[in-house]
Amino acid sequence: MKYAILTHGGAASPHAHSDGCVKAAESARSVLERGGDALEAALAATVILEDDPRFNAGTGSNLRFDGRTIEMDASVMTSDARFGAVSCIQRVKNPILVAAKVMETPHLLLVGDGATQFARAHRFPDYDPLTEKAQGKHARAMAELRGQGDGDYAADAAPWLTIDWKSLWNFGEAPFQDTVGAVVRDSQGRFAATASTGGTVYMLKGRVGDSPLMGCGVYAGPAGAVAATGVGEEIVRRFLSKTVYDWLEEGIPAARAAQRGIAKFPEIVDVGLLVASRDGQAIASNRNMASALLVG
Fold first, then answer.
1. What is d(CA 12, CA 22) in angstroms, rounded to the nearest whole number?
2. Is 179 tagged catalytic?
3. Which of 68, 202, 254, 285 has its CB 3.0 to 4.6 Å from that of 289, i.e. a possible disulfide?
4. Are the C-beta atoms of residues 199 and 207 closer than 8 Å to each other?
């Protein structure tokens, strides 16, 4: 069986950033070529994506409403049903590696301070993922809520403008989307899927999206692996990754399963998928999406 490596930089990420996805895929290929398995390869790819400040995961993650807090989510799943995830973790460089550590415990998901302290216990050092790009993005997003935006975040702001969002503030003081992922099939027919994110444009403290939830952001099993990206709440409502995986189990080709998954969403909702099966692979999105595919 040939290997396949698929990576993405998030639904609506510019195609111009696909070079970062190619670099991530090549890192995964190097792991496979030296005898590593699908899990090791998927993790290697995701670390590259988390370290690229152009993507909203790890370094460069989105700020929450307060303009100071960064909480990140990540998960990983393999075709032998191992799963590990972290949510709302702070001040680590590579959330995906902490999620992989959770796989070694009896738990599936660690959140908040518990996830961060778990990372420290396993010697993941303190790291500030904030970038000037994230600060600028936050400033533009908040301007949109004040009616002074440039329109780029109008769709994201729309649900918040229908409510008194300041009354929901949960940061302890008065106030003034994207994901990266990888799917790997190794030459032994093993699968792994990863997702890592800094969240959406507008987030209260403690918000959890699809990325750390099994069957939503990722799913893997003997029939294949799936990683999703887009508007987390909408992906969770459709249990997207497991739904697409079930189609693979039914014998539906990867490309058709991916397109069926995208078709479950209205055009206004950003969504993208990486799908690998025993005999095929596909990348699909209803938006521009930086991505890469290597098959060997």
1. 17
2. yes
3. 285
4. yes
Domain spans in the chain, listed from the N-terminal domain onward: 4-128+176-295
Task: Considering the candidates 7, 59, 179, 243, report the single residue annotated as catalytic.
Answer: 179
**Whole-model pTM over 0.90:** yes
- Burial-class residue 10 by CB neighbours within 10 Å (0-12, 13-18, 19+): buried
Q: What gap in Å lies between CA 63 and CA 56, rounded to an integer?
A: 10
As a whole number of angstroms, the distance between CA 33 and CA 30 comes to: 5
What pLDDT digit, counting tens, does each position of 224-253 carry? Answer: 999 999 999 999 999 999 999 999 999 999
Residue with tokens 């995986």: 245
Token pair belonging to 115:
């996830």
| 4-128+176-295: CATH superfamily | (Glycosyl)asparaginase (3.60.20.30)
The letter for the amino acid at 135 is: Q
Task: Tell me the pLDDT tens digit for each residue of 32-83.
Answer: 999 999 999 999 999 999 999 999 999 999 999 888 999 999 999 999 999 9
